[in-house]
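S1.2 Input.
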Amino acid sequence: MEPVHKAVIPAAGFGTRFLPATKALPKEMLPIVDKPAIQYIVEEAIASGIDSIIIVTGRNKRAIEDHFDRSAELEIELKEKGKQEQLRLIQEISEMVDVQYVRQKVPHGLGDAIYCARNFVGDEPFAVLLGDDIVYNPQRPALRQLLDAYERSGRSVIGVQEVPRTQVSRYGIVAAGQAEGRLYTVRDLVEKPSPEEAPSQLAIMGRYVLTPHLFDVLERTTPDAGGEIQLTDALRLLAEDEMLYAYYFEGRRYDIGDKLGYLQATVEFALRHPELSAPFAQYLQELVQQLNDAGEYAAS
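S1.3 Output.
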């Protein structure tokens, strides 16, 4: 079976939920402790065995390209000041993987953004990692889990995790069939159903390994009422042509497209940081105690 070497990272959205912070700064460049969010996504892809990445961008996303490029002036400045550790860090960023870029000129949905990468992917299976989803699993990255499932099945695999029924209307939901461990067959997919209509609580969580047939399917996917090509709609058509699987991956997932999810990621990654962990944990404990003593904090 042909191994998966390429990954697509769609990063063309406006990030309106974080305005005004994202008026000039791409949401993917919002920092989580000391790294921009998209770097965590790229590092997961590399740790999973990916060696070539294309990032689908839009207007005002140049900062993403600059981040993964060389910065000769900064490197000279750091070298002259003897800041060897910072120099090493920024050099590693530009050398970690082959990154290419393509623009989605008009925001016509996630399916259209992925379609923009068709020339890069060619006739190969490929991975997709959404920039709004960071998954923490240092032992076995989420994408690696999906790649292993793809290598066993030879079919497209979408990453899922269970969510509370009250939250199913925020996700694409899988109607799952027969299971083998964490791997399920997919009978259907429903985009943002009501809790009463949801076929399960298995939500699609921003990780995919897909066959190149998806591009043929995207060409015949009908735009939704807003004129966008939805990936979920294309996956439903793909499932009519070939077997589609869902894999319940292991890991702590953060929705950093959501303000609360972003704050949770920031706090928890800070608590894992080798330099910040102890003092930050102490600060949080003291802060909660102060708020409790002042009567300003009450757990709901």
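S1.4 Remarks. Residues 279 and 287 are 12 Å apart (CA to CA).
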